[in-house]
Amino acid sequence: MPEQRNKEYQKIRNWLVLVRMVLTLLVLLGAIVLDLTGVFHRWAERLVSNSYGLLFFYFFFFSVYSLLITFPLSFYSGFVLEHRYQLSDQKFEGWLWMWTKSVVLSFVLMAPLVLVLYALIWTFETSWWFLAWLGYTLFSLILGKLFPVLIVPLFYRYSPIRDDVLKKRIEQLATRYGFAIQNVCSLNLSKTTKKANAMFTGFGKTRRVVLGDTLLDSFSQDEILSVVGHELGHCRHRDIWKQFGFGAATTLFGFWIAFRLLEASAVFRGYLGASDVRAFPLLCLIFFIFELVLSPLGNAFSRRSERRADQFALAATRNQAAFISAMTKLGETNLADPEPHPIIEFLLYDHPAIGKRIKMGEQFVSK
Q1: Ramachandran region of residue 353, left (φ > 0), alpha (ψ -120 to 50) or beta?
Q2: Is residue 129 part of a domain?
Q3: Which terminal residue of the chain, N or C, has fewer Cβ atoms less than 10 Å from its own Cβ?
């Protein structure tokens, strides 16, 4: 039965989330308890004597260690499982190349942030946490603006929507609500997955509505308009800015918590204090636990935004049947569990369960 297959797939995905959390915890605790952090520090000392050079190579060794431990899980979740459930035709070499690019990009982005963070810790003993938060927030803003034009093209290819009738209908829908949407484009998601998806991304001139080619090839025009209406709902409600503000507020608290805990925990472990590079896994552990505790709140905030966007789509398109059909197809295409356990939804879902979205469409009353 299709629903049983969906539940089986999502159950495995949920377990993989738990395994990834445990594995991340073990990576950090292993670096601390087994003193691998000291080993990486000594390796770095043999290469350079400059503080920043030492920090860079330490972070490089730590990153390689983390990747070696987590690679089997990444391979299983990103390649094996997706092929087992016929959600991807991507060849192994293609997957490996995409994974390698994401790893290199992550290191290129993270290494300068780590260097700046420790520059602040070494220079501003009591206020580094606030300055680090300011820097992180600014970096997030810049990355959010540049993500559609610099990051996405490293992995996928944008192309214009070929259906002129559909394009005109999308533009008319946007214009009706005061949006001059010029960047509605297709993305070749089919190179990696059969799942259908769409997103609203970017700030200002880089803002765009992106529709996966898997969505454009499998959904009717009315169904696609419902999906676009959902993305316009995010635009209408300024959800990207709200999400950014929510993230900035919570990370401010997170950096303060790190400041309060890092010095004492570092000394307790026998390091020289917060400024000791060997205490880096402790800092990561603090942030990891903080994110773990706060993630249900972040997911609840996101689900609320998604419900509002669904309501906007229903009101804007005035086509309940198309909305319900689109949600049903998304559930079937992406192997979504229509009715996950409430605790699972609360802890892990940043969108309402697809069954709830369909029910909302059935119960929607146009005003």
Answers
A1: beta
A2: yes
A3: C
Query: Judging by beta carbons within 10 Å of its beta carbon (0-12, 13-18, 19+), is residue 162 exposed, middle or buried?
Result: exposed
* Residue indicated by tokens 């669904």: 310
Report the distance separating Cα 212 and Cα 318, nearest Å. 23
| Chain mean pLDDT for the chain | 92
Return the sign of the alpha-carbon dihedral for residues 166, 171, 176, 179. positive
Q: Are 290 and 28 in contact (CB under 8 A)?
A: no
Number of domains composing the chain: 1
Cβ contact 157:134 at 8 Å: no
pTM for the whole structure: 0.90
Backbone angles phi, psi at 183, to 5 degrees: -110, 65
Q: Does 345 reside within a domain? A: no
Asked if residue 30 is part of any domain, the answer here is yes
Nearest alpha carbon to residue 10 among 358, 351, 304, 360:
351
Range of the domain at 39: 2-154
What are the tens digits of pLDDT across the range 11-43?
Answer: 999 999 999 999 999 999 999 999 999 999 999
Is 331 a member of any domain?
A: no
Query: CA-CA distance, 298 to 275, in Å (whole number)?
Result: 30
